[in-house]
Design a protein that fits this description.
Elements (H helix, E strand, L loop, with lengths): L1 H11 L4 H8 L15 H17 L4 E13 L20 E14 L3 E9 L1 H6 L10 E11 L2 E9 L19 H4 L4 E9 L5 E8 L13 E8 L5 E11 L11 E11 L5 E13 L6 E14 L4 E12 L12 E12 L5 E12 L4 E3 L2 E3 L1 E12 L1
Antiparallel strand pairs: 1-2, 1-18, 2-3, 3-4, 4-5, 5-6, 6-7, 7-8, 8-9, 9-10, 10-11, 11-12, 12-13, 13-14, 14-15, 15-18, 16-17
Length: 387
C-alpha cells in the first residue's frame, strides 16, 4: 500500500508513469541461473590462457637508427670520396647520413621476421649494382620453426660473414676495416639455423651470390656459419662462402670464389673487450688456370674509461695483390692500417664517436691531388641516434 501511494504521488507531481513503472516493477525472472563466482583455479586458468594468447601472438617491435657523420680525408681528393675500397662513411669534407633505417621485427614461438628500409651513403655505395628499390631494403625476411631449435629463414638478411656490420652503433669501431668493407654486408636466399640457445649456433645457407640481391646468372652460392661460446666471456665464429663471386652473366665468365672468415671476441671484464678477425679467399683466374688469393686480418681493443666513455684502437692488414676485391693502380692492396677512436654516450639512445685512421701501403696507391703516395689519413666524427 505504501508503494502504491508513493507511485500515485509521483505521477501527480509530473513524473512519466512508464518510467516510474519500469523502475518500480522488478524484471521477470529468467530460467538461466546466475553466473557462479569464479574459483581461484578458474581465475588462474583464465589468466594463463590470456598469457598464452599474448605469447602466441606478440606485437611487432618497431626500431630505427640515424647515423650522421663528417669525414675529412687528408689527401683532399677532388672526387670528394675516400679510396674506392671504402664503402662506409666514404665522403670527404661534408656532412652526410651514412645509414638511416626504419623497420619492424616480429618474433613468436613459431614465426619470426624483419622488414626494414634504409637510405644514406652506405646503401649508395654498397648497393650500387642493385636495381631500383632494392637499394633501399636493409632487411626483408621471414622464418618458421620447423623443429625444436631449428629455424628456416628466407629473404634478404644481413650477411653471415664478418665481425663488423653496416651499423656503426653496433660495431667496436666507428669506421670499418678494409676486410669488412670488402666482404658481404648483406645477402639474399635461405638459411637453416640450429640454435639451442646455449653454446652453439650452426647455419647452412643457399644464397644468390656474393653480396647480391638480384642475381644475373644461374650460379647460386652456399655458405656456413658456426658459432661457439665456451663461456660468457668468449665467442668464436667461423663463416664460409663457396660460389660465383662477381655476379657476371653466364655468357661472360664463371669464376668460383672460396672464402673463409674467422673471428674471436673476448670480454675479460666489463671494462675491456678484445676482438681478432682473419679472412682468406681464393678465386679462379679469368680464362686461366690457377687462383688469385687474398688475406686480411684485424685486432681491436676497447677500453671503457667511464660508464659513458671509452677508447678503442685497431690494427689491420690487407693483402690483395691481384686486386680481386680492392683493385688499385698497382694491381691491389698491400696495406697496414691504424685507427684510434673515442666514444661518448651522453644518454642511452645517443652515441658520439670520433676516429683518426692512417693507411700505409707498400706501393703508391693513394691519390693526393694529381700524384700518388703510399699513405692515406682521415678523421671522422659521427652522431648516432637509436629509436
Amino acid at each position: 500500500m505504501k508503494s502504491a501511494a508513493l507511485l500515485c504521488a509521483l505521477v501527480a507531481a509530473g513524473w512519466p508513469a512508464a518510467r516510474l513503472q519500469a523502475q518500480a516493477v522488478p524484471p521477470a525472472p529468467t530460467t538461466t541461473a546466475p553466473p557462479v563466482a569464479p574459483t581461484a583455479t578458474a581465475a588462474a586458468q583464465t589468466a594463463s590462457a590470456a598469457a598464452d594468447t599474448a605469447q602466441a601472438d606478440p606485437k611487432p617491435e618497431f626500431f630505427g637508427y640515424v647515423g650522421v657523420y663528417y669525414g675529412y680525408d687528408f689527401n683532399n681528393p677532388a672526387s670528394l670520396t675516400r679510396p674506392g675500397f671504402i664503402y662506409s662513411e666514404n665522403l670527404h669534407n661534408q656532412f652526410a647520413v651514412n645509414l638511416a633505417l626504419l623497420g619492424a621485427r616480429y618474433t613468436s614461438d613459431r614465426f619470426r621476421g624483419t622488414f626494414a628500409i634504409q637510405t644514406g651513403t652506405y646503401p649508395d655505395a654498397n648497393y650500387a649494382a642493385e636495381p631500383g628499390v632494392f637499394k633501399n631494403i636493409y632487411e626483408a625476411w621471414g622464418g618458421v620453426k620447423v623443429a625444436k631449435n631449428l629455424w628456416l629463414d628466407a629473404g634478404i638478411f644481413l650477411s653471415h660473414i664478418g665481425l663488423e656490420g653496416p651499423n656503426s652503433r653496433d660495431n667496436l669501431t666507428l669506421t670499418r676495416s678494409i676486410m669488412a668493407d670488402n666482404s658481404p654486408y648483406y645477402e639474399a636466399g635461405a638459411k637453416l639455423t640450429y640454435d639451442p640457445g646455449k653454446k652453439w649456433l650452426v647455419s647452412f645457407l643457399a644464397i644468390n651470390g656474393w653480396q647480391v640481391i638480384r642475381d644475373r646468372n644461374q650460379n647460386e652460392a652456399v655458405g656456413t656459419q658456426v658459432q661457439f661460446r665456451p663461456s660468457p666471456k668468449w665467442l668464436l665464429n667461423s663463416s664460409t662462402f663457396v660460389g660465383e663471386g662477381r655476379n657476371a652473366p653466364d655468357s661472360i665468365s664463371r669464376q668460383l670464389r672460396y672464402f673463409h672468415n674467422f673471428y674471436v671476441t673476448y670480454d675479460p671484464s666489463a671494462k675491456w673487450k678484445l676482438a681478432a678477425a682473419f679472412d682468406t679467399g681464393w678465386e679462379e683466374k679469368y680464362q686461366q688456370s690457377g687462383y688469385n688469393a687474398w688475406q686480411g686480418a684485424s685486432l681491436i681493443v676497447r677500453r671503457r674509461t667511464t660508464a659513458r666513455t671509452g677508447i678503442v684502437g685497431r690494427v689491420e692488414y690487407y693483402h690483395d695483390p691481384a686486386g680481386v676485391l680492392a683493385p688499385t693502380r698497382a694491381g691491389g692492396l698491400n696495406t697496414v692500417g691504424y685507427s684510434l677512436g673515442f666514444d661518448y654516450l651522453p644518454v642511452p639512445r645517443v652515441i658520439l664517436r670520433a676516429e683518426a685512421k692512417q693507411f700505409v701501403d707498400q706501393n703508391d696507391v693513394y691519390l693526393e691531388k694529381k700524384t700518388y703516395k703510399k699513405t692515406n689519413g682521415a678523421a671522422t666524427v659521427l652522431l648516432g641516434l637509436t629509436f
